[in-house]
Amino acid sequence: MATPPDAGLLLVVSGPSGVGKTTIVHQVRERLGGRFSVSATTRPRSDGEVDGEDYLFVSPERFDEMVRTDAFLEHAEVFGRHAYGTPREPVDKALAEGELIMLDIDVQGAMQVRDRMPSAFMLFILPPSDDELRRRLESRGREDEEAINRRFAEARREIDLATGRDLYDAFITNDRLDRAVDEACRLVSARRTIAAVEG
After folding, report:
1. Which residues contact 11 (CB under 8 A, 6 or more apart)?
2. Nearest Cα residue to 7 out of 38, 36, 34
3. C-alpha dihedral, 178 to 184 to 190 to 195, nearest 10°
4. How many angstroms separate the Cα of 19 from the Cα of each of 66, 92, 157, 165, 179?
5. Which of 34, 59, 112, 183 suits 11 as a labelling partner, its CA being 20 to 30 A distant?
6. What whole-number distance in Å separates Cα of residue 154 and Cα of residue 157?
């Protein structure tokens, strides 16, 4: 029997700061193909950023219009200043073309995506332990003790929120990066195979 073609899949990956989720998502993309969804934002464009590649840079008025017309899979205001959101149309188009499309978002965003797109496949990346998470945050060397404490408390809140509800399809502990990437690729490939057979 011929192997069915890969089905389109929206992959949502979440995890606290310092857990290595961005590295995992990039390696999954390298191995399995696919692409990242480009977020829309109201923040100004930084030097070197390309509109439509790094972000879709939009005015606050345009962003509000997109919210009103239900054009986002998820959206949020970050730090009370700038708004960010995942436009729905490019995701729908990628899925219709059988592509793997990936989102790296927080738990609150994942909850919105689950409501609007129940077929999304959701992974949450966990640290091996609280001590290791704290060590990773400290090893970045970018922040003072107060900022690290704040990030650590935030991370614990996010983990509690993710594990305390029926939202994620699987949890992966990033104790060793190569093992975590292997597991993520295995889970995503299996889900796409099932979707192709069912589709």
Report:
1. 28, 34, 100, 101, 102, 103, 120, 121, 122, 123, 188
2. 34
3. -150
4. 32, 29, 14, 20, 14
5. 59
6. 5
Looking up tokens 């970018």 gives 142
Alpha-helix runs per DSSP H in the chain? 21-32, 60-68, 88-96, 107-116, 130-139, 145-163, 177-198
pLDDT tens by residue, the chain, 199 residues: 344 456 799 999 999 988 999 999 999 999 999 999 999 999 999 989 999 888 999 999 999 999 999 999 999 987 678 999 999 999 999 999 999 999 999 999 999 999 999 999 999 999 999 999 888 888 877 778 888 899 899 999 999 999 998 899 999 999 999 999 999 999 999 999 887 777 6
Of 37, 34, 12, which Cα lies nearest the Cα of 90?
37
Query: Could you tell me the CA-to-CA distances from 33 to 65, 145, 160 in Å, in that order?
Result: 33, 39, 31
Of 22, 38, 167, residue with least CA distance to 94: 38
- Which residues are 35's β-sheet partners? 101
* Of 88, 108, 102, 112, nearest in space to 31 by CA: 102
Tokens of 85: 């959101």
Going along the chain from its start, the domains and CATH numbers come out as 9-198 (3.40.50.300)
